[in-house]
Amino acid sequence: MFLQAILVTALILTAAKPILPDFLVRLPDVWIPPFADWLDVFFEFIRGDMDAGRWGLIYVTRWFADGPLEFMLGVTANILEGRHRWPYFENPLPWSSVAAVTVVLGYYLGGWRMALLAGGTMIWTALMGQWNITMQTVSVLLVAAPLGFAIGLVVGITAWKYRSFDNAIRPLLAVMQTLPFYTYLLPAVIFFKVGPTAGAIATTIYATPPMILMTTIGLRKVSPEVVEAGKMSGATRWQMLTKVFIPTARTEILVGVNQVIMLSLAMIVLTAFIGMPGLGATLLSSMNSFRLGRSLEIGITIVLLAIMLDQMSKAWVAKQPVHFERGTPWYLRHKHVVVALVLFSVFYVAAQFFDMLNDIGRRQSFSQAREIDALIKGFLALDVVKSITGTIRYVLNVWVLVPFRDALLWIPTSAFILFVVAFAYGVGGKRPALYALIFFSLVALSGWWDRSVITLYTVFAAVFLASLFGIPLGIVASRSERWSKRILMLCDTAQTFPSFVYLLPAIMLFGITDTTVVLSVVIYTMVPLTRYTIEGLRNVPPEMSEAADMSGATRWQKLTSVQLPLAVPTMAVGFNQAIMFAFFMVIIAAFIGTQDLGQELQRTLAGTDLGKNFVLGICVSLMALTFDMAILSWANRRKKALGL
Amino acid sequence: MQTDTPVISCRNAWKLFGPNPRQYLSQMPDGQSYNDILADGYIAGVKDVSLDVGKGEMLVIMGLSGSGKSTLVRCFSRLHDITGGTIEIDGQDIMALPEKGLIELRRSKMGMVFQSFGLLPHRTVLENVAFPLEMRGQDSHKRRERAMEVIKLVGLDGREGYFPRELSGGQQQRVGIARSLVIEPDIWFLDEPFSALDPLIRREMQDEFLRLQEMLGKTIVFITHDFDEALRLADRIAIMKDGAIEQCDTPDQIVLNPKTPYVLKFTEDVEKALVVHASALAKPLNGEAVEGTPIDGGMTIRQLARTLVNDPRENLPVADSSGTVTGVMSRKAALDLLMGPA
């Protein structure tokens, strides 16, 4: 009843738009509170002012940036790419030495397959003449990821120990995970100086939340008997934590490590927007100047690096300690360390004689950027290709995107909010509906309504298009064991790619246009949609499928009346993830040129407009959270109802 | 084997779970039943339990799941804090112990074995067994030496470098047992140690356990939900229901004189002749003289079956382990027990 009432009101408001009082169509400007100014005052207060000598947070952050952080970044940068700071190296380490150690590490963690992957990645990077920019990225990663790990572990332990602290940070973490990355960048720049320090900090903050959650989950999961065994052994509290809880929660903590590494990589690439050198910056500038060949090569490097880091850290999660027979000599017990040291030294010495092993400059590299560039551009210039991409663009724009966008923009604000509330109520129930009302009202009050609606439109359009392709793909793939596995592996791999990379194929096909934005989001969001469709269908209990078979159901009947209804809750989780991914991607794609919140956000990066930056970021976060809460609460309820 | 000073002495112990248990207990009228308490929103894990465990005694706590047996044993070791009453270990009130004293007590006097073993997955057998010693801060050489001794004792030598996941269930529990014994505890708690094992392995482990107990002579509190296991191992059995002890007695007495209908239900299907010893059926002499060779009071009626059938005497003298005649047993009563009343 309530649901119908809201819907009818919303419809009436929409229909009555011409005669509606203005404030119901769009909030008048005078009603909009200056949130940005208030936030600025607040930030100004906690920041302090170094020039005026007013004490504040900036004293602490600047000290940290100039002291320990700068130092750590200096060390890694120096070792890997050769800057002249402590420890003083005349030259950075030869690439072949670094590669050798990585290969041994890969072998130790995951056998020959992993060694091959590590070796391939390293050699590709060096041969393409990208070693230096890759090491610029890696040197920051080597500081940011451990920092994120340490902070996440400590905060996670605290949250596990004190329930009230946990309850306090949960909503904060939820917001942090939906906040667009631009909102991480500006505060980092303001508090931690432009350059690698700000990049490292933004990366750390962005990558930490999952580590916190995984640590807390892992510690909670330690079996009560193991805890009691520890207590009965007379362990003190500290001994309990360090010798019982943390080692027993190893798996979850390492899963957290994997996520920290992957999110760090994704973010470091994006810190290109605040001028951090490395893979991201080079990719950004190549894309901006439409050098497709070089973009493609860098994209491949980033993807290889991502797969390597993901696979290696996952292998670490799965790695179980193995016992040695009594009397095994030390060099066999530590054979990997020994081999790594030997290879490192061999290549280090060899690199002094053979320059190719030391450093492959851009001139000697095997990069084919120019040729590839010509090839792609030639291909795009073909009449057939041109007409196909042109048609797709035309149909998408004229028939789908523009009408949809205009329709959304036409709906009065009041009606729009009610529609969202009705959706949240129908799907999630009372609480999500209440949050939807509060959150979207806040978005309306922020004064960025039109841009928010455009952001939403891109998200909806992209997820809709992605569903059209992703869900049928998942259904078809789930019919055979082999294809399910293949597609799932593909999805898992694709999910590790830094989001930035997804822009590449779209740009290659459609150049720098708004169709590109939608298409890159479509590709990006297809991954979770397909993945969860397969997972949902494959996890239907076999006895239920068998019951359907024995009832004489055809394949289609079985799919529609048994498998899909049981898979829908899982698919909803995928749908939700697709929406979250879409919000993220839409904002990134802003640099191509959109009219949404991302565009405004990106503009704030140039200045020091923290207040505005936050207002915009929070708008994105509030919209994302609204859908997140409604859909997940539906999925959970449904799962319970189905007894899954 | 019992002596007079109890090692564990438990007086009117209560353990309530709920929002404000202490206050609730202090205001609670006497004679509240388990369900009365439940209706008030509290769960009586342990309900007014008074119990002594003597030195060297093996007390088996028996009950179905949820009867509070595990809770009671966790109160003895103060893994749970009791809500009311007192529990003394060697005359010391454990609720009065500060954290340090409690840790000291566990490091020196107590060992515990768990149903699902509670082994640390990242440590080898040796490191698991040596864990309590490591907590005490013993140096690694001594630790290793002592741990190896215990590992040999439970028959796991050669496996000390293995990780728990590389062992079978029975072997894992041997590690658990070794760990609980490594500090040479006076009191040994075993919480359903063999429940997670296959029946055959269970039997083997029970034998192993009896062998160890014969060697070590510890004070033992053993928990089980398996009545046969209880009868096989116990000096005394305490049967629990809804947090309270229904009856605490020797196996013979439990089988012969069940005090409550609940206990009776357990004993109904038991082959009594296998459990009851001649001494339990013997009546005092009252100055009467008895003649003929006495039978051994330590034998079960089943073991005496042939004698009972062949011996024509109406009343048989019963002797204790030193050979002194302590009582007289009616042959008819024993035969009734063996074959059922005529």
Average pLDDT rating of chain B: 88
Strand proportion of chain B: 15-25%
Largest sheet of chain B, order of strands side by side?
Answer: 6-7-8-3-9-10
Fraction of residues in helix of chain B? 25-40%
Order of helices and strands of chain B: EHHEEHEEHEHHHHEHEHEEHHHHEEHEEH
Topology:
The complex is a heterodimer of chains A (644) and B (342).
Chain A: H1 2-15, H2 22-25, H3 35-47, H4 57-81, H5 95-127, H6 131-161, H7 163-178, H8 182-192, H9 196-221, H10 224-232, H11 237-248, H12 250-270, H13 279-288, H14 292-318, H15 330-333, H16 335-353, H17 355-358, H18 369-381, H19 383-410, H20 413-428, H21 430-446, H22 449-477, H23 481-496, H24 503-510, H25 514-538, H26 542-550, H27 555-588, H28 590-593, H29 597-604, H30 610-642
Chain B: E1 6-17, H1 21-27, H2 34-39, E2 43-54, E3 58-62, H3 69-76, E4 84-89, E5 92-93, H4 99-108, E6 110-113, H5 125-129, H6 131-136, H7 140-153, H8 169-181, E7 187-191, H9 199-216, E8 219-224, H10 227-233, E9 236-241, E10 244-249, H11 251-256, H12 261-268, H13 272-275, H14 278-281, E11 283-284, E12 295-296, H15 305-310, E13 315-319, E14 325-330, H16 331-339
Parallel strand pairs in B: 3-8, 3-9, 6-7, 7-8, 12-13
Antiparallel strand pairs in B: 1-2, 1-4, 4-5, 9-10, 11-14, 13-14
Helix pairs in contact in B: 7-8
Structure description:
- The complex is a heterodimer of chains A (about 650) and B (about 350).
- Among the domains of chain A are: about 55-90 and about 130-275, Orthogonal Bundle (MetI-like fold); about 380-640, MetI-like (MetI-like fold, Orthogonal Bundle), CATH 1.10.3720.
- Helices cover about 80% and strands about 0% of the residues of chain A.
- Chain A has helices spanning about 1-15, 20-25, 35-45, 55-80, 95-125, 130-160, 165-180, 180-190, 195-220, 225-230, 235-250, 250-270, 280-290, 290-320, 330-335, 335-355, 355-360, 370-380, 385-410, 415-430, 430-445, 450-475, 480-495, 505-510, 515-540, 540-550, 555-590, 590-595, 595-605, 610-640.
- Chain A is globular.
- In chain A, helix 24 (about 505-510) packs across helix 25.
- Among the domains of chain B are: about 55-75 and about 100-110 and about 185-270, Rossmann fold (3-Layer(aba) Sandwich), CATH 3.40.50.300; about 275-340, Roll (CBS-domain).
- In chain B, about 40% of the residues lie in helices and about 25% in strands.
- The two termini of chain B are about 40 Å apart.
- The chains are: A mainly alpha (about 650), B alpha/beta (about 350).
- At the A-B interface, helix 10 and helix 11 of A face helix 4, strand 6, helix 6 and helix 8 of B.
